[in-house]
Design brief:
Shape of chain A: globular
Largest sheet of chain B: none
Number of helices of chain A: 12
Helix content of chain B: 55-70%
Structural class of chain B: mainly alpha
Strand content of chain B: under 5%
Largest interface: A-B, 118 and 91 residues
Pfam families (chain B): MadL (PF03817)
Number of strands of chain A: 0
Oligomer: heterodimer
Organism (chain B): Rhodoplanes tepidamans
Keywords (chain B): Membrane, Transmembrane, Transmembrane helix
Largest sheet of chain A: none
Protein name (chain B): Malonate transporter subunit MadL
Transmembrane segments (chain B): 7-27, 33-52, 64-85, 91-112
Chain lengths: 257, 139
């Protein structure tokens, strides 16, 4: 057993990225089979694959107590590179090839507006829920609200305002829940809520914001929507980091003292 | 050559991220503001310009389309490295804050996208079952 493991590690470890390509390829095939045969095409193959990916992340986290899901299992270390921010952003940029410029121009203003609305609504929801659960400190409320914006805005705001580490951890958890919720809910809610065209995708990107959430949510809905949604979503975290520790905090101080 | 396409993608990524990082520094926030978004805009303008000049041959295009097609596999890998355990351990506050902030925003899509011209919005490739990011017929 130990020898088999050592052999496998010798085989896989220096080729970690290639191993992740092979593994994701096999997983994708299985999930697309599941999608067509079991769900009869009702659930998109990539939606199934993304949910399975999240389950793998959960298993990895439980086994290793790490923060990077399955990538903390040595055999799967290549996933950190394949699914990391560098390749993700590179592929997102590549999806912009073939985007219709007139769509970008037409939806530009609404895209900006949705960015502002999306940030403030998420912040307010986070604050209201934290307040309902008994949090009263202005810094705590602001940090948790910022976490509902994205899991990057939460800790950035928390450290700017000097929040305690458990509140920062809570804000990160809220942000991660949000991004997972976007991944899972988008394919189901897309049609009834009109997310079927480039203009709606730009608005959606601005409203939801979380880059990983919208990236996966749109991929599981209709890959043609991806570039439009990603374009506005990539401004969201930066915008949140800008307004949460400043404007939002000032308003919070006026309300809660 | 295929590498030219990959190079164009990479150049746009560096240009866009540089703009995003500088914007972040100007506004005094850590990280970049919309670096990927600026990179996407650069790519749209640059490839349209090159196409107009007839300087975007098939192999170059293939270098970009490969990474375009790798997007979903990369996203699946991304899902599998999320900190799902932390998300579930965050308790009810984290769960509710995360989920409610998504659910309340979905109804706004229709309202705001009506403003964005959703009625006339299209991918431009409706007649053909083209793959993601395929070049629209008349861009």
């Amino acid at each position: 057993m130990d020898q088999t493991y050592a052999f496998l590690m010798e085989l896989v470890k220096p080729r970690a990225l290639i191993f992740s390509f092979v593994f994701v390829g096999a997983l994708t095939w299985l999930c697309y089979q599941f999608s067509t045969k079991i769900t009869r095409g009702r659930v998109h193959g990539s939606a199934v694959a993304i949910v399975v990916g999240l389950i793998l992340a959960f298993v990895g986290g439980m086994l290793t107590n790490g923060k990077r899901g399955i990538a903390d299992i040595p055999m799967f270390a290549g996933f950190a590179l394949m699914g990391g921010a560098m390749l993700r952003d590179f592929c997102i940029i590549a999806t912009a090839y073939g985007v219709r410029m007139e769509e970008l121009k037409k939806a530009g203003l609404a895209g900006v507006l949705s960015l502002v609305v999306g940030t403030f609504v998420a912040f307010v929801v986070g604050v209201v829920i934290a307040y309902a659960f008994g949090y009263r400190g202005t810094v705590d409320l602001t940090t948790i609200g910022a976490g509902a914006v994205t899991f990057i805005v939460g800790p950035v705001t928390g450290s700017a305002l000097g929040a305690s580490s458990d509140i920062v951890a809570l804000s990160i958890a809220a942000g991660v829940v949000k991004s997972i919720a976007v991944m899972i809910l988008t394919p189901f809610l897309a049609k009834p809520f009109g997310l079927t065209n480039p203009a709606a995708a730009m608005v959606y990107g601005g409203l939801m914001g979380t880059t990983s959430g919208t990236a996966a949510g749109l991929a599981a809905t209709d890959p043609r929507l991806v570039p439009y949604g990603a374009l506005t979503a990539t401004f969201y975290t930066g915008f949140g980091c800008l307004v949460c520790p400043s404007i939002c905090y000032i308003i919070m101080r006026m309300i809660f003292g | 050559m295929v590498i030219y396409g990959v190079m164009i993608l990479g150049l746009c990524m560096f240009l866009g991220t540089a703009v995003g990082l500088l914007l972040g520094k100007l506004l005094g926030i850590p990280g970049d503001i919309g670096g990927v978004g600026f990179a996407m805009l650069f790519l749209v303008f640059l490839t349209n310009w090159l196409k107009g000049k007839g300087m975007l041959p098939k192999p170059t295009e293939q270098g970009m389309l490969f990474w375009n097609a790798m997007y979903i596999p990369v996203v699946i890998a991304m899902a599998s490295i999320q900190n799902v355990v932390a998300a579930l351990n965050g308790g009810l506050v984290a769960l509710l804050a995360g989920i409610v902030s998504v659910v309340v925003l979905f109804p706004l899509i229709r309202i705001l996208s009506a403003m964005a011209g959703a009625a006339t919005s299209s991918f431009g490739d409706e007649e053909a079952d083209a793959p993601a990011g395929a070049q629209p017929k008349k861009a």
